[in-house]
Specification:
The protein is an alpha+beta fold. The protein is built from ten helices and six strands. The protein has two domains: 24-62 and 105-273 and 318-439, Outer membrane efflux proteins (OEP), CATH 1.20.1600; 64-103 and 274-311, Outer membrane efflux proteins (OEP) (Single Sheet), CATH 2.20.200.
């Protein structure tokens, strides 16, 4: 019985010393996600595979060597003096051969293609890293916004509870009607439902963040004053679009695709060109019990070296049609590049004006917050002196806390807009998270 009494006390002490989960910065959570997120790990594995695939193309311009050998045993039944009627003999042989391409334009073009494809793999990994930054940041700020919303709902519940208590006191002394009490009670019940929804929304947002970083109960570090976020620099959308030409992974990948298509045409044209290879071989053999025509054993050896020249003459018009095909694919690659440029330019401009608009919305909501606070103060004073009714105070309270919630969400949207703008033009890097954390430090 004494042990059962001590269990609640031990549990309470354990919770007291455990404390809350340690808060982490946005950059720390991004590093955790790089080591856990399955989508990014898949992109990294694909990048490694593409690099190894590109290295395989180098074999076409490097020396090749091979070793072959064989053992055989034969029997000859013949009446051919001086050979016996049943003549058994065997052969052992080994050959080492090597070749070095001297002039193979198709192989060289394939190797150059592989280098471009390795660059494409790097651009694709960069895009995956930027996507991970956005996903981690979105989940991070979603949790903070959900925490703010829950805090505002609880503050509204407390203010509504105070107004309900005041309405009950006034009804008891006969200064107000039962209508005020019922209105306050209805508003309080509505806020309780909003609190339940806000708690569930926060729970869901936390689960989404945990799924990305691979840790339960991940706690974002709260940000400081959000009104210190500067506008986009430079303050010109065309400058951001211009930077995308040399930074956007999508544009760079499309440029490499054009170069790959051009090299494919070069490979097709090589079908008309000769090839030259340096070849060498050395053979060793041993005839056991002679051969089919002799009883003498011998050990022949032979070494050869030379240059092999091959010139294609006619392939049934396959080369000509292959060249026409690759030229059409070149046009397609250039058209795809232009389409990518337009899509990136549109995305950059959309993100830029989204940040500018979001900052304007923040300023407007800040003004609305101040006005809502003044309206609430005026309605409370009017209610005390009898020129305002209870519902006026309740509406003013609801408006103020809704404005606070919208302002908090708008500020987080501006932060995300800054990151999405850099993702749109391809300049987003993990260092941007560190700069953002420093900017928002308390």
């Amino acid at each position: 019985m004494m042990m059962l009494r001590l269990l609640p006390l031990a549990a309470a002490l354990g919770l007291a010393f455990a404390g809350p989960a340690r808060a982490e910065s946005l950059l720390q959570m991004y590093e955790d996600a790089r080591a856990y997120d399955a989508t990014w790990q898949s992109a990294k594995a694909q990048y490694d595979a593409n690099l190894y695939r590109a290295e395989q193309a180098r074999a076409g311009i490097l020396p090749q060597a091979a070793l072959s050998g064989g053992v055989s045993r034969s029997k000859v039944d013949a009446n051919n003096p001086p050979l016996p009627n049943d003549h058994y003999f065997g052969t052992q042989s080994a050959t080492v051969s090597a070749s070095q391409p001297l002039y193979r334009p198709a192989n060289l073009a394939t190797w150059r293609q592989a280098q471009r494809q390795a660059q494409q793999a790097e651009f694709q990994l960069t895009a995956a890293s930027q996507d991970l930054i956005i996903r981690v940041s979105q989940a991070y700020f979603d949790v903070l916004a959900a925490q703010d919303t829950l805090g505002y709902v609880r503050a509204l519940k407390e203010a509504t509870a105070e107004q309900l208590a005041a309405a009950k006191r006034n009804f008891e002394v006969g200064t107000t009607t039962i209508t005020d009490t019922r209105e306050a009670q209805a508003r309080y019940d509505l806020v309780l439902a909003q609190e339940i929804q806000a708690e569930n929304d926060l729970r869901i947002k936390r689960l989404a963040l945990d799924t990305i970083v691979g840790r339960t109960a991940a706690q974002p570090d709260s940000v400081g004053v959000l009104d210190k976020v500067p506008p986009p620099q430079p303050a010109d959308p065309d400058a951001w679009v211009g930077a995308a030409e040399t930074a956007s992974p999508a544009i760079l990948n499309a440029k490499s695709a054009v170069e790959v298509a051009e090299l494919e045409t070069e490979k097709a044209r090589a079908g008309h060109k000769p090839t030259v290879d340096l070849t060498a071989s050395y053979s060793y053999g041993r005839n056991i019990n002679g051969t089919a025509a002799s009883l003498l054993e011998n050990q022949p050896r032979q070494g050869t070296a030379g240059v092999q020249f091959t010139l294609p003459l006619f392939a049934g018009f396959a080369v000509q049609n292959r060249i026409r095909e690759t030229l059409s694919l070149e046009d397609k690659a250039r058209t795809d590049l232009e389409a990518t440029r337009r899509q990136v330019a549109q995305a950059v401009r959309t993100a830029y004006f989204g940040v500018v608009s979001g900052q304007g919305q923040v300023r407007a909501l800040e003004a609305a917050e101040a006005s809502s606070q003044s309206s609430l103060d005026a309605n409370r004073l009017g209610y005390q002196v009898g020129v305002r009714i209870n519902i006026d105070v309740l509406n003013a309270q609801t408006q103020l806390f809704q404005t606070k919630r919208d302002l908090s969400q708008a500020r987080y949207n501006v932060l995300m807009g800054q990151l999405k703008l850099r993702q749109a033009n391809g300049t987003l890097q993990p260092e941007d998270l560190q700069r953002l954390s420093t900017l928002l430090a308390r």
